[in-house]
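Structure tokens please, single chain.
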Amino acid sequence: IYSQTALERQKMEGQVFVLVKKEHQFIGFLAYQVFNEKTKIHKLYLLPEEHGKGYGIAMINFVIDIVKAIPQSILYLNVNKYNKAKLFYEKFGFILTAEEVIDIGKGYVMDDFVMTYEIK
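Here you go.
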């Protein structure tokens, strides 16, 4: 899902990619997609050494500002059930709204929580 071909396809399907740069180094990226009634964060990644410095919060707030301007009130994402980022999203205010198992082929699945944030 991270090959150049796959990323180009995701962009053609409506995902918007944003690179996060600190000084002269890229430290993370996010991908989001606006749908009719809500917006999804598909990807949110930071270099491990940049965790806990406020960049993740800034990235989510960046998307929230876009969602507010549309205007919409729902932002959601999937997070692997065993990913410690779930705690970060909960702390931010996302709530667990569903569980989802997605077949990604060749015998692999993504076992995720769907988390939702209501923008007020």
